[in-house]
Amino acid sequence: MHTLIADPLTHFIAQVVAIVALSRLLGLGTQRLGQPMVIAEMLAGILLGPSFLGLLWPEVGAALFSPDSLHVMGTVSQVGVVLFMFLIGLELDHRLLGGRGPASVAISYASIAAPFALGAGLALYLYDRLADRSVSLLTFALYMGAFMSVTAFPVLARILAERRLLRSRIGAVTIACAAVADVTAWCVLAFVVAAVRATGHAGALVTTALAIAYAGAMLLVVRPLLVRLAARVATPDAMSQNVAALVLILVLISSWLTELMGIHAVFGAFLFGAILPKEGGFARALVEKLEDVTIIALVPLFFAYSGVRTEIGLLDSAQDWAICGLILLVGTLGKAGAGTIAARLSGLSWRESGALGVLMNTRGLMGIIVVNIGLDLGVISPELFSMLIIMGLVTTFIATPLLQWIYPAEAMARDLLDSLEGPKGNKTAGTGVLVCLSHAGAAPGLLEVAASLARGDRAARLYALHLMPTGDRPSVHLAEPDDAVPAALLAAGASAEERGVELKTLSFVSPDPADDICRVAAVQNAELVLLGCHKPLVGKSSLGGVVGEVLRQTRSEVAVLVDRGVEAPRTALVPFRGSPDDRAALLLAGRLVGPEGSVTVLAARGSQPAREVMDEVGASVAIDAVDPASLAAAVIERSQDGHPLVLVGIAPDWSLVRDCPTSLLLVRGAQPPAGMRDS
């Protein structure tokens, strides 16, 4: 082992490889459990430390993370934390408080005051047992209060996005509360750092005054200059390497100055990110430049550095574990309990209040940063360091399952739709059509079909749903700001206005689009789900992916449009073999063309539609009997004879019409699918 890492460079490379590989490997498992990536990174750090690797393979652990190599890893990881805190500052947007200021501030300070008071009170008990006597009781109490008050803003935003709550009322309030809470907690922590590094509390007050003056200068002098710079870099394409390098230099200078003042470098980075203008594409462009390398390589290094310093073996008695449990209980009651009660008093429902409390209780990376600052300053002992690391891991881990229990997917979908049309919106009258838009180019064709249905049913309710993928970026809520409308919905709105129909739109981040489409359709009582097929029709696999999953799961009728220049149809062609899906396709054709339109049915001999089905179509119907063996050729030939749209019931051999030159509408009836019937 020593021959493979004989010099500092190869030693450091081996550490990075081990840390990143283990983090990503664990991430595959934690993400299957619905946990954010930060859980995997925290676990990887602990597993590579003395608590696991040091016990199972002490020689490997001692060689890979030898004490003389930790200085390099610690320095690089601190650079990663500085950059990460800059990204966190970028995510803090004053627009998050728009219309939610009073309630958010009230909830935020309730979720700060209670855990701060409980943490400071707990410090009285812990001081004689786990604090360094060189640190005053007041400083120790302030530190414990600040740690108990902090919230993992990026983890919280990620969980909200993955639970489809980011655009909901609870998501907006929680994000705003977390922003206010974190800024306040970091201000308190800045005073604690100043108190420890300065000579007495008088020196801490001087350092704090300098920090306040510095923050004022950043807001009044530096921010206007950054606004002018952002105006010149309004799009990600305009973000050159020179501009990104300039911003990076300024971030590091800001960190350097706050370190010289006697607080901590992370505060300078955080402040610089917070004052950067969020309007336009400037902030998002910077995130795209810096986030990947920071998240993939540098932040896991920080977790590993924390894990190497976490010695769970130091908790070697029942009393130690009882204290660890007490810290977890006090932190959870203070943060989650106070947040829940304050949210309820502010007018949120008990479900929303409980969800907010659970989310505010997550510590994640922010808590780990605070714990490391405390250990570096000598405010806490290694034993307390390990206890607080465990607390941060547990509070982050339990957030997702608790949120799933408090806020199940059905309630999430219902609240999302209430935000669309109000809690008393009419969801039962008329035919509901859910138009699913993956991109702007799909809007005209799908809206043409939906508008044709609406013209035949004046009570029809049309909804356009656009789902944004979560990807793997923590800064997911920066990808689509609240005041931005996705291009797909803009195109849908324009198409609906052009066709004179009313369209309601809904958009949110979704980790599972098929599942969300089915839930929205169920909650909205949509009779028809209309999707686009954007893959070439080659074999049966062409209805896989999201379309295939929707066909398997939803109970609503489903129509999949293969758009080859569809226009408002007045005639339609329907091949018919007598299956339930053929019947559904025939009835949908009648609704599309209207009473004044006509439907041509190419029926396989012996499979003509029943008279009651013909009467239900509501349009002129002409039936031509065709030999079953030549049905495909007949469809292709007749589709070129003035029929702009062919409606096909999905059946084991629906692909017989894939070579049809006109637009296709593949229809599956409203009966529950039983395994999608081989398609």
Strand order of the largest sheet: 3-2-1-4-5-10-9
Q: What is the quaternary state of this protein?
A: single chain
Q: Major beta sheet, specifics?
A: 7 strands, mixed
Mean pLDDT over the full residue set? 79
Gyration radius (Cα, Å) is 30 Å
Number of helical segments with 4 or more residues: 26
- Give the overall form: elongated
**CATH 2nd-level architecture of the largest domain:** Up-down Bundle
Give the number of DSSP strands.
10
Low-confidence stretches: 422-429, 476-483, 673-679
The share of residues in helices is 55-70%
Class inferred from helices and paired strands: alpha/beta
Which strand-content bin applies to the residues?
5-15%
Ends apart, CA distance between termini: 55 Å
CATH class assignment of the largest domain: Mainly Alpha
Number of domains: 3
Description:
It is a single chain. This protein folds into three domains: 8-407, Na+/H+ antiporter like fold; 409-532, Rossmann fold, CATH 3.40.50; 559-679, HUPs (Rossmann fold). The chain is 60% helix and 9% strand. It contains 26 helices and ten strands. It has helices at 8-32, 37-47, 53-56, 58-64, 70-91, 101-130, 137-149, 153-162, 169-197, 200-232, 241-261, 265-275, 282-308, 318-345, 350-360, 364-377, 382-397, 399-406, 409-421, 443-456, 487-499, 513-523, 545-553, 580-593, 611-617, 631-639; strands spanning 432-437, 461-469, 504-510, 528-532, 557-562, 571-576, 598-604, 620-626, 645-649, 663-668. The strands form two sheets. It has a seven-stranded mixed beta sheet, with helices on both faces.
